[in-house]
């Protein structure tokens, strides 16, 4: 009996200690904390469908001092790599460099750190039919100034990355004295900002950013002091489509009226590639929400010097319009022909 009691007390004590241990915050956190592992995987060339050797892979983590490089490795003959570093708390990303093009892949929390697949593509400076571009120029005469918002929506359906160092991925016209930057959103990436680069042609700039497979967006905006006139050139090899609110109309030589976009009721016009133009602008209005317009009206006198316009408060509206035109494929608009 005495021996059995001792065994029961010991068993009870052990059970009590284990229960207290599980209730201890420090021990619970220790048990719940995942074990960190090294990062390993394979670099695959999606153009050839084969593993890609000799590709630099870097583990990057943003810190107080900016982007910090935690470790680097190079893929072997079978495309395999291994970085002998622990995965930091998110956000963390793996960055590869192949044929002069950088590819980023974010490491979401909880994803395996082994068997990671990193995709790269062969780079080419020959633009193929797999790359389709929509170039929109939105003109908004309002409050005694002209807001200009320019958007490139580019879809690369191929298996190569297009990069042309001399001409860039897109070309655009900028009036003299315009101060602006281009917001670039690459496939699966976060928006970054780049300055437009000068070309040999006066007032023609290029956007020197590679077009990877998937969808890439270039966006910029600025303001001009004259809301009644706009002159420029349709740079690049694709038609330039100009868009205004339903209360605004454009006129000028070489301008083709495509009609009205059904969803937004915006006027859509077209200028052929390479053509210079001088447009007269009649009416006033903006493709914006009422709240965004109210914010601008309450901000005081408008700036009439060239500068950055507020594109982001109407970004979804602009993209909805752009995708609407893309979905139409131009068919419905062209059937309407020039406005009577």
- Mean pLDDT across all amino acids: 80
For the record, give the distance between the C-alpha atoms at the N and C termini, rounded to a whole number: 109 Å
Structural class: alpha+beta
Stretches where pLDDT is under 50 for at least 5 consecutive residues are 1-36, 289-316, 326-340
Beta fraction: 35-45%
Question: Into how many domains do the coordinates divide?
Answer: 2
What is the total tally of β strands?
24
Main sheet record: 8 strands, mixed
Into which percent range does the helicity of residues fall?
10-25%
Order of helices and strands: HHEEEEEEEEEEEEEEEEEEEEEEEEHHH
Shape estimate: elongated
Strand order of the largest sheet: 15-14-18-11-10-20-23-22
Tally of individual helices: 5
What key phrases describe this protein's structure?
disordered C terminus, alpha+beta, 24 strands, elongated, Immunoglobulin-like, 4-stranded mixed sheet, 17% helix, 340 residues, 8-stranded mixed sheet, 2 domains, disordered N terminus, 5 helices
What does this structure look like?
It contains five helices and 24 strands. It is elongated and about 65 Å long. The strands form six sheets. Strands 15-14-18-11-10-20-23-22 form an eight-stranded mixed beta sheet. With 340 residues, the chain is of the alpha+beta class. Residues 1-36, 289-316 and 326-340 have low confidence and may be disordered. The protein folds into two domains: 39-120, Immunoglobulins (Immunoglobulin-like); 131-336, no CATH class. The N and C termini lie far apart (109 Å). The protein has helices spanning 2-23, 25-32, 290-297, 315-328, 331-336; strands spanning 39-45, 50-51, 56-63, 66-74, 80-83, 93-98, 101-106, 116-120, 122-124, 131-142, 145-156, 160-162, 170-173, 182-185, 192-194, 197-198, 204-207, 214-224, 229-233, 240-244, 248-251, 256-260, 267-271, 276-283.
């Amino acid at each position: 009996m005495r021996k059995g009691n001792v065994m029961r007390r010991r068993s009870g004590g052990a059970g009590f200690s284990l229960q207290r241990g599980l209730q201890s915050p420090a021990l619970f956190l220790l048990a719940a904390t995942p074990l960190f592992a090294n990062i390993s995987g394979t670099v695959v060339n999606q153009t050839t469908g084969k593993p890609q050797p000799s590709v630099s892979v870097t583990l990057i983590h943003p810190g107080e001092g900016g982007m910090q490089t935690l470790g680097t490795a190079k893929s072997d003959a079978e495309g395999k790599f291994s970085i002998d570093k622990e995965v930091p708390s998110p956000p963390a990303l793996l960055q590869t460099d192949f044929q002069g093009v950088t590819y980023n892949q974010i490491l979401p929390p909880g994803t395996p750190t082994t068997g990671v697949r990193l995709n790269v593509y062969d780079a080419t400076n020959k633009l193929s039919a797999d790359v389709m571009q929509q170039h929109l120029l939105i003109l908004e005469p309002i409050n005694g100034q002209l807001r200009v918002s320019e958007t490139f929506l580019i879809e690369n359906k191929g298996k190569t990355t297009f990069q042309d160092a001399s001409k860039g991925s897109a070309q655009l016209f900028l009036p003299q004295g315009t101060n602006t930057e281009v917001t670039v959103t690459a496939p699966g990436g976060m928006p970054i900002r780049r300055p437009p680069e000068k070309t040999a042609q006066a007032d023609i700039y290029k956007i020197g950013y590679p077009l990877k497979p998937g969808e890439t967006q270039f966006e910029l905006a600025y303001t001009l002091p004259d809301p009644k006139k706009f002159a420029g050139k349709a740079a690049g090899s694709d038609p330039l489509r100009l868009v205004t609110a339903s209360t605004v109309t454009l006129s000028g030589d070489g301008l083709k009226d495509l009609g009205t976009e059904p969803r937004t009721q915006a006027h859509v016009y077209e200028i052929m590639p390479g053509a210079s133009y001088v447009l007269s602008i009649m009416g006033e209005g903006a493709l914006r929400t009422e709240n965004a317009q109210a914010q601008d009206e309450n901000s005081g006198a408008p700036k009439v010097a060239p500068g950055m316009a507020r594109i982001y408060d109407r970004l979804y509206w602009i993209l909805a319009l752009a995708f609407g035109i893309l979905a139409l494929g131009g068919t419905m608009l062209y059937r309407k022909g020039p406005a009577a």
